[in-house]
Amino acid sequence: MSMVEAGRGGTRERILVLLRRHGRLSAPQLADLLELTPVGVRRHLTLLERDGLVTARVEKPKRGRPAAVYRLTDAGLETFPRHYDEVASEALAFLKRQDASVLSQFLAWRNERLAASYVKRVDGATLAERARALADVLSEQGYMAEVESTPGGLRLCQHNCTVEHLATELPDLCASEAELFERLLGTPVEREATIVQGGVRCVTRVRVDLPAQADGRAGDARSREGRSRRRSSDSNTTTTPPTPMPARREA
User: Fold this and answer.
1) What global pTM score does this model have?
2) How far apart, in whole angstroms, are the C-alpha atoms of residue 82 and residue 54?
3) How far is residue 212's CA from residue 225's CA, in Å, rounded to a whole number?
4) What is the mean pLDDT for each group of 10 consecutive residues in the chain (251 residues)?
5) Which of 13, 109, 190, 233 is the right S-S partner for 9, CB 3.0 to 4.6 Å?
6) Is residue 218 a part of any domain in this protein?
């Protein structure tokens, strides 16, 4: 049980617990429950607002003057115990036990959504530019990613795994992520280390010795477009039939 849940700790932790228990409270109400002065409680509430843990709204009671009433924000609610990882892990493990293909379909569906969300931002004329753009996107998601240059090419390094508990039980998540990287970068990648396997970071080697698949797909598309134009041109060209030879007259 956390300190916040138990109601122990400093005044700010106790304020969070009271707001969790009561929903919404004013500074004077909190002061009565904490046996502190309203001025002192407001000082703590100001700091909690600054940290994004509580928010206030002025409400007019049936009697008396309007007063600011405080409640927890989503970030404030997250300071209390959550079991998202446990539920998600159980759900994915259940899917895999029932039918491994269902889990594969789910991961493929997830990659489709992620690719659609990232593809416009993971852009660049070179593979290195695309890799750095991908690292920026991953860092925004909490992965603390960066790209390292090596004699053999590039390494995409992630210093944090946001799904570590899930990936420990289901390594399929790691394999699915590598497939997503290949799709976005347009070139094969290879996992050299993962946090769930004991590494201090996840390391993905990006192949630079092969032509990018993305460029190949673009070339194929251009080739198909050229063939289509040629077929269209051929179909619109009028073919003149050969002139018949005059028939010979019998002597």
Assistant:
1) 0.63
2) 18
3) 20
4) 51 94 93 94 95 93 85 92 85 88 93 95 93 96 94 92 90 95 95 93 86 43 40 45 47 33
5) 13
6) no
